[in-house]
């Protein structure tokens, strides 16, 4: 039992770290070829891989608790972002403007992330399970593609619409939504071997334990 708890703690720690990092860096727009994406796209898809692994190894109830833990960590980030903005700096601190630029955008981005995160992570769990039941297919590659095809569109649409509405023109928002969707879907599918290997490894370790 001790090793099982240890593995769950490591996965939960990685999951929440990815969520916090994603929220902080999501305000920066970058290009990958013709696609305009937020920098968080390079790391955020890993959160879905981790939640799928936790679901498969530890069950739906534990997976949802881990998701809610990530939600709580984002909420704490919102609180401390506000504190960072409103708390007066020391007279000797000369970089307060840089902090204000970064953290002024964080609350709106995190609010968008809250909604996208809540719907997308729960859809991911549902779809990953549902594809196994509906298609009688336990293949992780297929189940991951099925869940990510739905999940990443929901996540991209909600996040971009709320984060950048009014900041960019409609055609730019549409481009950003589909850019994020395509890149995140690609990264998520490429993560399939990691998910498959980790699930097999953990199941084997738990059997021996």
TrEMBL record:
Keywords: Cell membrane, Membrane, Transmembrane, Transmembrane helix, Transport. The keyword Cell membrane applies. Coiled coil: none annotated. GO terms for cellular component: plasma membrane. The keyword Cell membrane applies. Belongs to the vitamin uptake transporter (VUT/ECF) (TC 2.A.88) family. Q precursor transporter subfamily. It comes from Thermosipho atlanticus DSM 15807. InterPro entries: YhhQ (IPR003744). It is found in: Cell membrane. The chain crosses the membrane at residues 7-26, 32-54, 66-87, 99-120, 141-165, 177-199. Its main location: membrane. It comes from the Bacteria. Involved in the import of queuosine (Q) precursors, required for Q precursor salvage. GO terms for molecular function: transmembrane transporter activity. This is Probable queuosine precursor transporter. It is a multi-pass membrane protein.
């Amino acid at each position: 039992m001790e090793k099982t708890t240890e593995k769950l703690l490591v996965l939960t720690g990685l999951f929440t770290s990815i969520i916090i990092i994603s929220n902080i860096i999501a305000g920066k727009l970058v290009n990958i070829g013709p696609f305009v994406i937020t920098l968080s796209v390079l790391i955020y898809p890993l959160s879905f891989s981790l939640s799928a692994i936790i679901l498969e190894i530890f069950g739906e109830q534990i997976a949802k608790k881990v998701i809610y833990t990530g939600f709580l960590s984002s909420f704490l980030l919102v609180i401390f972002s506000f504190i960072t903005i409103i708390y007066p700096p020391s007279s000797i601190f000369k970089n307060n403007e840089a902090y204000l630029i970064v953290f002024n955008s964080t609350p709106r981005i995190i609010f968008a992330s809250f909604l996208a995160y809540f719907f997308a992570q729960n859809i991911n769990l549902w779809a990953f399970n549902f594809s196994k039941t509906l298609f009688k297919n336990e293949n992780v590659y297929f189940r991951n593609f099925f869940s990510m095809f739905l999940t990443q569109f929901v996540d991209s649409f909600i996040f971009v619409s709320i984060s950048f509405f009014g900041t960019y023109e409609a055609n730019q928002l549409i481009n950003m939504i589909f850019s994020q969707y395509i890149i995140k879907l690609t990264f998520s599918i490429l993560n399939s071997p990691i998910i498959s290997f980790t699930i097999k490894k953990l199941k084997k370790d738990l059997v021996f334990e």
